[in-house]
Q: What sequence folds into this?
């Protein structure tokens, strides 16, 4: 798992309890990734998951039903 650094503003908040990890809707490539990781018995940071700081968490959470591509397009506006 990646350290908690906000996907929008690059804020490193590993020493605070703000924000959190959000799992977006999986794309076909993400399902492929999960299958591959499972087959190899590996764990890693899911390509469809992202950390968000306290300032951006609520907004990102409201978009978690979208894929990460769609959500980031909206969030970075
Ligand atoms: Zn942020």
A:
């Amino acid at each position: 798992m990646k350290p908690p650094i906000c996907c929008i503003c690059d804020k490193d908040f590993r020493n605070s309890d703000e924000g959190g990890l959000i799992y977006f809707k999986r794309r076909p490539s993400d399902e492929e990734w999960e299958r591959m990781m499972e087959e190899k018995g590996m764990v890693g940071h899911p390509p469809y998951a992202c950390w968000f700081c306290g300032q951006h968490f609520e907004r990102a959470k409201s978009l978690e039903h979208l894929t990460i591509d769609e959500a980031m397009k909206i969030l970075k506006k």
Notes: The mean pLDDT is 96.
